[in-house]
UniProtKB/TrEMBL annotation:
Residues 66-87 are annotated as: Disordered. Oligomerizes as a right-handed, spiral filament on DNA at oriC. Transmembrane segments: none annotated. Pfam families: Bac_DnaA, Bac_DnaA_C, DnaA_N. This is Chromosomal replication initiator protein DnaA. Domain I is involved in oligomerization and binding regulators, domain II is flexibile and of varying length in different bacteria, domain III forms the AAA+ region, while domain IV binds dsDNA. It comes from the Bacteria. Residues 307-425 are annotated as: Domain IV, binds dsDNA. CDD domains: AAA, Bac_DnaA_C.
Length: 425
């Protein structure tokens, strides 16, 4: 109790009930919302205390209590006050903070840009447009910006997914309440839209968003957007929106390298209050390479299995529990396989794949191989680049070029289909 101020003790510790059975500690919490806040604020410390009380092998399990004690509302109201969620229209996830975001290759630029925006919203990078593949931390970063802003002052934030923005607009049109729809967005200091790609191809939504964008931008309110693609690659997007998305800072997030994946695992394990064996961490980080969400999911699965069966998480256990996930990765096609097969298809020497020759007979098959590597393996652009002796921008260029050709040329698309099937055999 000495470690936590009285108000926070009442809010976060008093509503808990704990049960210790000699191997582990089960903590009952009043609800899911409370659980997220508790883990983010005290998960690490609870894990440490449990170990010092019960022993190093102690596993902490959290359970949502079906019959919570009546005084449990304190934490929610405390969260509302400290995080001033009342200034928020939408849900900001309290778990996603800058403190628990691991910075490494692939995300450092997006991280720095997000930090800068959290420091000076509306002033330097407006809009901030973050894009990149699935599960790489975009949502985490934009929530971190929002959480940071909520700590500092009374910034009013609207947080939406592109899908929800669209659905709300459809609803407003149906109800004849488009004015109210418009107004709610124009009164905020920061507008955050996750997965803005969703509005592409939806003319009315784009039109509405265009006006909201202008209204906020003119009065220097911060706009933050995420997408799975760069503005340039968002087909079916109005040109005037595309150009606006480029007015501020466009930053791409790449899959983390091995070192960063290990650091993320260790941070997530620490937050969950578990000790992860080095070899197991290495097994996961080297096999699950381009999606942090999957990496986190693997860790959660391992922990749950270990807790339920009372087993230690060692390599054999991890291989068994995650056999489907790891097996799939083992079977995955390698870059070398692709280089060999594409070279033989086009009748060129496999060494040309990493040579500097630029003649079309060599350069084009090489670009096709680069494209196939991106499509069929889980390797990141820099990793693919290294296998071709090129940097990641050359790979990106090749991927885009082949993609575009496939869209525009039916015969080529058919041939590419054949090549891809061959590569998968
Ligand atoms: N660098 C990181 N440090 C800590 N956690 C991370 C990091 N990158 C991603 N994560 C975690 O991975 C999970 C997926 O991240 P997030 O939801 O932000 O991905 P995303 O890029 O928004 O994906 P999607 O495009 O599918 O929405 C989250 O739990 C997030 O906390």
């Amino acid at each position: 109790m000495d470690e936590v101020p009285a108000s926070r003790f009442d809010a976060w510790v008093r509503p808990l009930t704990a049960l210790c059975d000699g191997h582990g500690l089960t903590i009952k919490v009043p609800n899911r919302f409370f659980l997220d806040g508790l883990k983010a604020s005290y998960g690490k410390r609870i894990g440490e205390l449990a170990k010092s009380l019960v022993g190093d092998e102690c596993v902490v399990l959290y359970e949502v209590d079906a019959n919570p004690p009546p005084e449990n509302e304190t934490a929610q109201s405390e969260l509302k006050e400290s995080g001033t969620q009342s200034n928020v229209d939408g849900y900001i996830d309290p778990r996603f903070t800058f403190e628990n975001f691991v910075v490494g290759s692939g995300n450092e630029f997006c991280h720095a840009a997000s930090r800068a925006v959290a420091d000076k919203p509306g002033e330097i990078y407006n809009p901030l447009y973050l894009y990149g593949g699935v599960g790489l931390g975009k949502t985490h970063l934009i929530n971190a910006v929002a959480n940071e802003l909520l700590q500092k002052d009374h910034t009013r934030i609207a947080y939406r997914t592109g899908e929800r923005f669209t659905n709300e607009l459809i609803q407003a049109i149906r109800n004849g309440s488009t004015d109210a729809f418009r107004n709610q967005y124009r009164q905020v200091d920061v507008l955050i839209i996750d997965d803005i790609q969703f509005i592409a191809g939806k003319d009315r939504t784009q039109e509405e968003f265009f006006h909201t964008f202008n209204a906020l931008y003119e009065v220097k309110k911060q706009i933050i957007l995420t997408s799975d693609r760069s503005p340039r690659d968002l087909t079916n997007l109005m040109e005037r929106l595309r150009s606006r998305f480029n007015w501020g800072l466009v930053a791409d997030i790449q899959p983390p390298d091995l070192e960063t994946r290990l650091a993320i695992l260790s941070s997530k394990a620490e937050l969950a209050g578990i000790q992860l064996d080095k070899d197991v961490a290495h097994l996961l980080a080297s096999r699950i390479t381009n999606n942090v969400r999957e990496l986190e999911g693997a860790l959660t699965r391992l922990t749950a299995h270990a807790t339920l069966t009372g087993r230690m998480i060692d390599i054999a256990f991890a291989r068994h529990v995650l056999r489907d996930l790891l097996h799939e990765e083992v079977r995955a096609i390698s870059i070398e396989d692709i280089q060999k097969k594409v070279a033989s298809y086009f009748n060129i020497n496999v060494r040309e794949m990493s040579s500097t020759k630029r003649s079309r007979t060599v350069a084009f098959p090489r670009q096709i191989a680069m494209y196939a590597c991106k499509e069929l393996t889980t390797r990141s652009l820099p990793e693919i680049g290294a296998s071709f002796n090129k940097d990641h921008t050359t790979i990106l260029y090749a991927v885009r070029k082949v993609d575009k050709m496939r869209q525009e040329d039916e015969d080529f698309d058919e041939e590419m289909g054949r090549i891809m099937r061959l590569l998968k055999q």
